[in-house]
């Protein structure tokens, strides 16, 4: 309700009536040329042979009742009123006005504004919809028009986009006001502090900002995806721009552009001026300095000659330094080139190529399940095969960890076989070590998603998996989507003794 300014000492106000929309309400266009309503079968189902589905809405524009109370109200005169619903046609709005006049006739000399609003809110929906569907007929003129009615004009096809715009605006208003739970930190806050991704997952601003800034800082663009483990949809640039600052967003743009250029197989960089060049049959010519070079070894074009390996090139450069007295600038340049070639040799010796994009990746510690930072694909570091999860290590010949001590450090324990049990019984020192590990084994709980064993902190049974970032319960070993829905009087206890 909105109180308007008094006009000539008379009170006036507006009341906005919003209809609660039943689930599955659709807006339909009736293509009958004569504008008649669609027929219904005997069982009440709607014959949509002449209907075209337009859209489904959760919120309808309000019906606005404007009243001006005369001085003789309510003793002798009814309120002066108008009903505005610019998404309805004149016959329907005129019918609402006629019902107001009828209510005043039944209750002369009484206050009727509350009765009008109550009737609009509770009984007028059946006059607007048919079987909970709103049907628009082709535009036309009507002889039955009420002077109190403010309805839509012509062009029914432009009414539906206006209703869709209001539906989106109203949904956003309610989203900003209501409380939501973050899928990362599980805290609750109003929607104004949340970000709603195109995949409809919700996360608070702080968690999303930390999530994006960390991966942009590390240059790991493949992880700029929805944090929900069941979704993994990429974050659009508009979302990243609203989360990241100007400097961080420019850094992301630079990484994204460079990654796009790196995926072009015929693009190389000039070894003299570092300009981008197009490769043709392993040869390229720089458009800036016009240097023609081999795209493989970055030396002058050598038709009919094989390229030198990095080790051969290092040997030639070192021999050259011994035989000739080079200028300091040239010597520093070739020394940097030797260091780069040594790095390449080291990378090729202690790394493996991703089976998807052929990027060289080296493992320093951890498990054999590798994630390529260039393409985001998973592969096994031991057999160099592309994998999708941990099943490759549970049912294959490859081990997740190369040694047991490293597995214990990450919470993965292997069951000893019978021969090892016998040897352990004979060795007293090994038995003492196992006894020391038993309490640690009891406090680790396997994740139902990836199998990684995680520790339960204090008495909280809600565990966040370190490996797949999924949430699960330590008691029932089931996934937890909402903490408030899983724990409670009818569910598991969130806090129990270790």
TrEMBL record:
Alphabetic keyword roster: Metal-binding, Repeat, Transferase, Ubl conjugation pathway, Zinc, Zinc-finger
Cross-referenced InterPro entries: E3_UB_ligase_RBR, IBR_dom, RWD_dom, TRIAD_supradom, UBQ-conjugating_enzyme/RWD, Znf_RING, Znf_RING/FYVE/PHD, Znf_RING_CS
GO MF entries: ubiquitin protein ligase activity; zinc ion binding
Taxonomic placement: Eukaryota, Viridiplantae, Streptophyta, Embryophyta, Tracheophyta
Function: Might act as an E3 ubiquitin-protein ligase, or as part of E3 complex, which accepts ubiquitin from specific E2 ubiquitin-conjugating enzymes and then transfers it to substrates.
Entry annotated with the keyword Transferase: yes
RING-type domain location: 178-402, 182-227
Pfam families in the cross-refs: IBR, IBR_1, RWD
Protein name (database record): RBR-type E3 ubiquitin transferase
Cofactor requirement: Zn(2+)
Ranges of residues in domain RWD: 1-127
Source species: Urochloa decumbens
Record EC number: 2.3.2.31
Source organism, top-level taxon: Eukaryota
Stretches for region Disordered: 414-433
Entry-linked CDD domains: BRcat_RBR_RNF14, RWD_IMPACT
Reaction equation(s) it catalyzes: [E2 ubiquitin-conjugating enzyme]-S-ubiquitinyl-L-cysteine + [acceptor protein]-L-lysine = [E2 ubiquitin-conjugating enzyme]-L-cysteine + [acceptor protein]-N(6)-ubiquitinyl-L-lysine
Family: Belongs to the RBR family. Ariadne subfamily.
